[in-house]
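Example 4.3 (complexes with small molecules)
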Amino acid sequence: MDIKQRMQELSQAKYSRELAQCGGEQLYHVLLQLSQELAQARPAPAGERKLYYFSAEFLIGKLLSNNLLALGIFDEVSKVLAECGHTLSAVEDVEPEPSLGNGGLGRLAACFLDSIAALGLNGDGVGLNYHYGLFEQRFHRSHQYEQPNPWIEDESWLIPTGVEFEVPFGFGGVKARLLDIAVPGAHSGIANRLHLFDVENPAPAPADGIDFDKSDLPARLTSFLYPDDSDEAGRLLRVYQQYFMVSAGAQLILKELEERGFDPRTISDHVAIQINDTHPSMVIPELVRLLTARGLSMDEAVAQVSRTCAYTNHTILAEALEKWPLTFIEKVAPQLVPIIRELDARAKAAHSDPRVAIIQGGAGREVVHMAHMDIHYGYSVNGVAALHTDILKNSELKPFADIYPAKFNNKTNGVTLRRWLEVCNPQLASLLDECVGTEWRTDPTRLNKLMDYYNDSAVLDRLLEIKAANKRRASDLFIRDQYGIRLDPEAVFDIQVKRLHEYKRQQMNALYVIHKYLEIKAGRIPERPVTVIFGAKAAPAYVMAKNIIHLILCLRRLIENDPQVRPWLHVAMVENYNVTWAERIIPACDISEQISLASKEASGTGNMKFMANGAVTLGTLDGANVEIAELVGPDNIYTFGAGSNYVIELYDQKAKDSSKGYQSRVYYERPAVKPLVDFLLSPVMTELGDEAALKALQNDMINKDWFMALLDVEAYIAARDRAIADYGDRTAWARKMLVNIARSGFFSSDRTIAEYNRDIWNLK
Ligand code: 26Q
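Answer. The structure with 26Q bound is encoded below.
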């Protein structure tokens, strides 16, 4: 197809204008329609087995650039736009971001869909069409506020399908309407689909804020994505959402199975269901229900489902493991209760250990342990990084691993380098083309060839130039879109962007900022200026997380107002950090902060995106950081802090005797630590901030510090200062960048998906 000609036809048809006369908004809609036409003209992949990736979240981000890339018309469209005096990135500014996920788990699902399509595999996503994505974050007086975040416009990526199913809730049936988003595969010529279910008559927008009547069902079923990351909201509406998704999804699977001409008795030969954390776990009893309704015996149905479903665990935080009161399920989907009781009875008959029961608790207090159902009635259980899977097998899920050793397997996460390198860092991508050839775009292991340039000063200089250009660009966008806030592009960019959670330890990063501030005030001028950038949303009900945001924003104001400190230290916090901001900021990073308490971050995926863009990791030996460290070697990463075995040991000691194990006060009393923690309530801070919030935070640090920030803070400061000092040797630093980029191919989600397919799905 002649792309330019088709763009011209569309601009005429839609706006009766020449392409060159169109503004950004019109060009966006021309390109949206063009992409939809091309994607919908593509065939579905061949293959008798089909994967359904069930997830409550798909944090897809803006789609225009990525779809143009996958459709193979990115360069051509960029050229046509340039002829009209526009850039693709300016056109994409018009696109609203669909923030249909909280963070890592949702973004992983989006990367996976991209890779499944790129590998030409037969696999679709199944989820919900939330009308409001994750809340929009606003800062006011150094506090976070939440606003609704609508993303659906009259013309969007959603394609109506006309497909409908009835979902039988306790209160009556609700029609589920299916909308699709096309997922074109790069280099594969096919397109898969993201299936998003919605109610027939969604409620209109709420008048104000993100609060709404949660009992207004069914109209409110798909209104909001739950704004929690790892916090159990414990809400009935969440269970309604989950059942709506899995019932409609299971009906879709059976419909397609029939259309493909297969008997439901053979479903496990033709279907694989990946359950993304426990949010879709009710698909297991629902599928049993639907199969028995189609004539299978209970034994047959259970056997088929157990060979169809596979479960991915994304967390070891006990509070994030979903356990629903049986009364909730009784209310939402009473027809599932006898099935769940039957599944539980079978598990109890086979395994007397009460720790592996599905239903736990006495009469009236019974809870359904969703992960336990997945493990007994799924054929695969995987963790998301080597360390995480080891911890699952050896401690968190040990009783299960002893029963089902063969089910457990590791699939280290990955990210799509198409979005996270080719699109977001085109200059680096073309340097890589020059150095290693363009094949890395389909085979990321080819990036290893970059090691040949370890001593090539021209290439090392180019890496530094590209990084400097990306820092300038990020600074310009900051001034444009973040209320004129200035970054210093000459400074070291030290970045921590991820959801706000105590275990991720943004508070420890803030303690480093305090340390630097006090050093400068004492006349000890640092070697070079540092810009510390944060980006993080706190779950609206997570008070401690909001207090940490408050601390960071107060430090920002304190430093901005201090002419002695300002030349050497900047603190910036991105308002409304999302996928769009991630694409702007990650290419500009020098030091990537991955400082979770060892054993707590299942994998992390931001760490991989930073590495691929030439940032050097400063991190604990947690999650996938462990694998990054192995791949790049000790000279090209800064690791510090307590190891996971020691941390787990400390928690075990504390569980046995609360006077044993980690005692934060002991670390608080250390001379290097006390002044940092005390600073939270110093006069300069209480004058700027909310004393009660700062006091609550300080009190927690001294007396609890559940995630042991004070245990690691001294080692952290030393490692971070070492990294900032090393930055001064530009050639040596450029080599570290080069090694990180060269070794990042392993973290392509194409590799991860190839492993899922080889070990779990067997699609072709
Ligand atoms: C649970 C119950 C009620 C309401 C919300 C939730 C909920 C929502 C989202 C629980 C957990 C999540 C998200 C978890 C998550 O993002 N986990 C991250 O998954 C990434 C991909 O595997 C990992 O890289 C991260 O380490 C892990 O934290």
